[in-house]
Amino acid sequence: MGGQGAKRRQVAGQSWRPETTTSRPQSDKRSRGIGKSSGRARNSANGNTRNNAKNNANNNEWLYGTHPVHEALKNPRRTLHRLIATSKAADALPPGATDRIRPELATSDEIAELLPERAVHQGLTLHAAPLPDLDLEDVMAPFDETEAPPLLFLDQVSDPHNVGAILRTASAFGAAAVIVQDRHAPQVTGTLAKSASGAVEHIPLIRVTNLSRALEAAADAGYFRLGLAGEADEVLGTQNLSDKIALVLGAEGPGLRRLTREKCDLLVKLPTHEPISSLNVSNAAAVALFAVSK
User: Fold this and answer.
1) In Å, how far are 30, 72, 191, 199, 293 from 139, measured between CA atoms?
2) Phi, psi of 125 (to 5 degrees)
3) Model confidence pLDDT, tens digit, residues 223-256
4) Mean residue pLDDT across the chain
């Protein structure tokens, strides 16, 4: 075929789709640094295929993007498997990042092969084990009966972009944790972690079987449960609130379920105005956290 043919590229320990290309001598492939080390990076390829990497999503996470990966590299609770970066992204890694893992060099397109379509990876992806699970009691126990950082309960908020943005907001306002019901919440994927901009390393995302029982446990620990509902009579910010607040937010559209509402000590609404009086749930979480953090 005149020197043309389907050629599989082995890059950063992964198998890549065949492509039609002019044959290159092995020395030329080395010169491009594919899957090889440059001064500070050494290839630690393990031979897993691209499909195997994606099929491992239930047990491991491909994080991507500058902030999620940098924060994960700094988190001692993260078990790190593989770090794949472009040369530029590898040079910009935070100090000490390569003490635990060496980056494998690849091109931007090759990194994109490992990730969801249109993922904005910024030249960086990290294969890591999920963070250890925490229980609600683990985050409530360190605080006394009268004062604690707020808790944030999400009732059937299923969009990973929203949950990620809420985690980022929760970190910014010093919340203790975000609590979700396991059946109706997204997993911590690269998409969620990217939306959280690194906050998944700092704010526990606690999964519970029964949200109503979790709200009861919060009440037993002295938390005042404040639910956001557009039809509520009282406006958030007009109350003399406790120093232990559990904010409860529902999904856009359905809002809080009946049983969740019944577990709240008070329903409040945000001070918005017509004709556009509703906010995205992540924006509503930001306003509510600001109000209870003042």
Assistant:
1) 50, 20, 25, 16, 18
2) -145, 150
3) 999 999 988 989 988 787 878 999 999 987 788 9
4) 81
All structural domains of the chain with their residue ranges? 4-128, 136-293
CATH classification code of 136-293:
3.40.1280.10
**Between 73 and 44, residue with greater pLDDT:** 73
Question: What are the pLDDT digits (tens) for 133-178?
Answer: 999 999 998 887 777 999 999 999 999 999 999 999 999 999 999 9
- pTM of the full structure: 0.78
Other beta carbons within 10 Å of 90: 24
Tokens of 273: 């105005």
Whether the Cβ atoms of residue 50 and residue 18 lie closer than 8 Å to each other: no
pLDDT band at 31 (very low <50, low <70, confident <90, very high): very low
Quick count: other Cβ atoms within 10 Å of Cβ 126? 26
Q: How far apart are the first and last CA of the chain?
A: 72
pLDDT over 90, % of the chain: 62
State mean pLDDT over 72-90: 96
- The three state secondary structure string of the chain is CCCEEEECCEECCEECCCEEEECCCHHHHHHCCCCCCCCCCCCCCCCCCHHHHHHHHHCCEEEECHHHHHHHHCCCCCCEEEEEECHHHHHCCCCCHHHCCCEEECCHHHHHCCCCCCCCCCCEEEEECCCCCCCHHHHHCCCCCCCCCCEEEEECCCCHHHHHHHHHHHHHCCCCEEEEEHHHCCCCCHHHHHHHCCHHHCCCEEEECCHHHHHHHHHHCCCEEEEECCCCCEECCCCCCCCCEEEEEEECCCECCHHHHHCCCEEEECCCCCCCCCCCHHHHHHHHHHHHHC
